[in-house]
């Protein structure tokens, strides 16, 4: 059985540590600064507060962190390739469901969907979810449908990897625009100080997301195993073919 390259061990470790730190920050923000998600909350508005607080929780923890873990599955999970693909697909499915629910919670306010769909953040979020859904479906059809020809899967694989990393990066960029949008609103509309605890927390959350994404993408493009997974085999007529 192939083992994880030693150079990847620190990356995987820091990916987990930074991921837990980001999760802790967004949970602390959602539950400790409730007025930031729904000003002047009253008992009748508790449901709206829940929806507003659930949006960053689902999008950051459920969508970004879980999809990042799904990318890392191929780098650390022991076992067969079939097992890795199964866990990868399941985690990506959970991330997709979390993203859909996260967007749904944002549209549960009194103003409805159209009023919330006006900013760069909202446009990027919708594009990201659509790309992620297409990517998940492409992965399912290309790598799990038993009738697929191996040569077709090999041709699709580079595009699957590219689109996966691109969508993951787009999700992080979308979250960063959301944090900037939220912090700008708090500082201009509600006179939240630029040096207060909440401002520092949101900025730290943004830096944490940038750190996590960098580590995940670096681990994804680094050499996977000590042993080569793909070997070049030369046939008797001198032609080169690849087997994995």
UniProtKB/TrEMBL annotation:
Cofactor: heme b
Protein localization: Membrane
GO cellular component: membrane
Highest taxon above the source species: Eukaryota
Pfam families: Cytochrom_B561
InterPro entries given in the database record: CYB561/CYBRD1-like (IPR043205), Cyt_b561/ferric_Rdtase_TM (IPR006593)
UniProt keyword terms in alphabetical order: Electron transport, Heme, Iron, Membrane, Metal-binding, Transmembrane, Transmembrane helix, Transport
Catalytic reaction equation(s): Fe(3+)(out) + L-ascorbate(in) = monodehydro-L-ascorbate radical(in) + Fe(2+)(out) + H(+)
Positions of the Cytochrome b561 domain: 14-221
Chief site of localization: membrane
EC category: translocase
Transmembrane spans: 12-33, 53-74, 86-104, 124-144, 156-180, 200-221
Matching Gene3D superfamilies: 1.20.120.1770
Entry membrane topology: Multi-pass membrane protein
EC number from the UniProt entry: 7.2.1.3
A Gene Ontology molecular function term of the record: metal ion binding
Protein name in UniProt: ascorbate ferrireductase (transmembrane)
Protein species of origin: Malus domestica
């Amino acid at each position: 059985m192939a083992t994880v390259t030693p150079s990847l061990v620190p990356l995987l470790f820091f990916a987990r540590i930074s991921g837990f730190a980001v999760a802790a920050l967004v949970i602390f923000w959602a539950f400790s600064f409730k007025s930031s998600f729904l000003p002047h909350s009253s008992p009748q508005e508790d449901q709206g507060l829940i929806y507003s607080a659930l949006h960053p929780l689902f999008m950051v923890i459920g969508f970004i962190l879980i999809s990042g873990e799904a990318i890392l599955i191929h780098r650390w999970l022991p076992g067969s390739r079939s097992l890795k693909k199964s866990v990868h697909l399941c985690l990506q499915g959970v991330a997709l469901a979390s993203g859909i629910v996260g967007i749904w919670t944002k549209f549960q306010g009194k103003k409805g969907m159209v009023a919330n769909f006006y900013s760069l953040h909202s446009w990027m979020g919708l594009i990201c979810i659509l790309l992620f859904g297409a990517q998940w479906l492409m992965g399912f059809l290309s790598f799990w449908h038993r009738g697929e020809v191996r040569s077709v899967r090999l041709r699709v694989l580079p595009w699957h990897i590219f689109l996966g990393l691109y969508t993951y990066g787009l999700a992080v960029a979308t979250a960063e625009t959301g944090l900037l949008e939220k912090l700008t609103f708090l500082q201009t509309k509600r006179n939240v100080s630029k040096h207060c605890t909440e401002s520092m927390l949101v900025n730290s959350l943004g830096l944490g997301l940038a750190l996590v994404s960098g580590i995940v993408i670096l681990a994804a493009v680094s050499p996977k195993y000590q042993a080569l997974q793909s070997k070049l085999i030369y046939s008797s007529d001198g032609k080169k073919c690849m087997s994995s």
